[in-house]
Amino acid sequence: MVEVKVLEDRGNSVTLQLEDIDRSYANAVRRFCIAEVPSMAIDDVVILENSSVLYDEILAHRLGMVPIKTDLEKYNLPEECDCGNPLGCHKCRVLFVLDAKGKEKISTVMSGDLVSEDREVRPVSETIPLVKLAPGQSVKLEAYARLGRGKEHAKWQPATVAVLTDGKKEGVFNLMVESAGGLPAKQIVLKAIELLEKKLKEIQVAVGGAQ
Predict the structure, then answer these.
(1) Among 86, 58, 195, 59, which Cα is nearest to 146's?
(2) pLDDT tens digits for range 157-190
(3) Do the domains at 3-37+158-210 and 39-154 have one common CATH topology?
(4) In 3-state terms, what secondary structure has residue 69?
């Protein structure tokens, strides 16, 4: 039986000691933490007005890389949502609005200036610079965030670091996971294990049906 001990839990990072577990399984959990656990990120941006020095594409890319607080219980992956709408619905996407105008001096538009239709789904930090505006310049846009996986794009990676190292004795491994901020690190690990078990059961059923 696998023994798990929490060596350190800081909320955004967690270190676990895994004992009596195969290295390949432990490494699979690590990989799922990065590539399979869903997280929220801005994916579609509708630019209504942009007189800043940044091209629309660069601004949209910056928005996509802003870490977003994620609620896995409230929102569905687009491909699993029953709305069947390619544009999404309130169960699989969140609308952000940005309406910023330049002031008397050059000002910086921050991630905290994004207004979300869901107060719980918001940028992890309010102080991430998006664009600078000179007097008279403005940016007005709508941005839609959705759940996605790290294997699709780095902006959906819930963990910035996931490392598996050898413990002090044979058969013992230490798994350290650091969150990007959208999900607590411990939740990322638990979700990774859940998804891995689901995948293994699907393989088991497929192999059994092939006999």
Answers:
(1) 86
(2) 999 999 999 988 888 999 999 999 999 999 999 9
(3) no
(4) coil
Q: Say which residue the tokens 């598996």 belong to.
A: 164
DSSP 176: E
Report whether CATH 3.10.450.50 matches the domain 3-37+158-210: no
Query: Is residue 168 within 8 Å of residue 8, measured between CB atoms?
Result: no
| CA–CA gap between residue 145 and residue 140 (Å, rounded) | 17
Residues 94-137 have pLDDT tens digits of 999 999 999 889 999 999 999 999 999 999 999 999 999 999 99
39-154: CATH number: 2.170.120.12
Q: Which two tokens stand for residue 47?
A: 């630019």
For the chain, the structural domain boundaries read 3-37+158-210, 39-154
